[in-house]
Amino acid sequence: ALTEAIRSGGHEVLPIEGGAATSVVRPPANATNVQWVPDGRSVTYIDRSDPGWNVFRSSIDGGAPSPVSHVTDGRVLQHAWSPDGRRLGILVRAGERLDLWVTDADGRKPVRVTQLSPEIITSFLWMADSRRLVVEASTRPSDVVLIRDFR
């Protein structure tokens, strides 16, 4: 059963001393941006079957996944844990806007960190101190191509 779980997209937990896997965490098939939480006890992922594409947590001990983010206006496109595991950064698209939000580890106390315009955030990373973020942003170029009489 453990081997089958790994083949179907599971994440295997192995002891560093060697030996058999101690557990497998298997996010749903529509999960994206799968990441280990810094404490090593669970993984988080964006569940695209959720209307807000919220971040969910699955423990290595099993049990039902639990929501971490609670986005109702827009969708989560990316998430990243602070190195100390106390905060979660989430990139949220709401309409044409892309903003970076930071929440506590349990998803409470969301704070919008960016309000950029016309730039859009393309990626972000936590600094080692877990207190600052590096944000990459750019303007969105638009190319229009007209093809006539295509055969």
Helix content: under 10%
Quaternary state reads single chain
Structural class of the secondary elements?
mainly beta
* Overall pLDDT level: 84
Which regions are unreliable across 5 or more consecutive residues at pLDDT < 50? 1-8
Physical arrangement of strands within the biggest beta sheet: 3-4-5-6
- Major pleated sheet: 4 strands, antiparallel
First and last CA, distance: 54 Å
Characterize the overall form.
globular
Q: What's the β-strand tally?
A: 12
- Rg from Cα: 19 Å
| SSE sequence, one letter per element | HEEEEEEEEEEEE
- Helix count from the secondary structure assignment: 1
What fraction of residues sit in β-strands?
35-45%
Q: How does this structure look, described?
A:
There is one protein chain. With 151 residues, this protein is mostly beta strands. The chain has one helix at 2-7; strands at 11-13, 23-25, 31-36, 42-47, 55-59, 66-67, 75-81, 87-94, 97-104, 111-112, 120-126, 133-138. The strands form four sheets. A four-stranded antiparallel β-sheet has the order 3-4-5-6, with no helix packed on it. A four-stranded antiparallel β-sheet has the order 7-8-9-10, with no helix packed on it. Strand 3 and strand 4 form a beta hairpin. The protein starts with a helix and ends in a 13-residue tail after the last strand. The relative contact order is 0.11. The model is unreliable at 1-8 (pLDDT under 50).
Summarize the structure.
It contains 1 helix and 12 strands, in the order αββββββββββββ. The protein is mainly β.
Can you lay out the helices and strands and say which pair or pack?
Blueprint (H helix, E strand, L loop, with lengths): L1 H6 L3 E3 L9 E3 L5 E6 L5 E6 L7 E5 L6 E2 L7 E7 L5 E8 L2 E8 L6 E2 L7 E7 L6 E6 L13
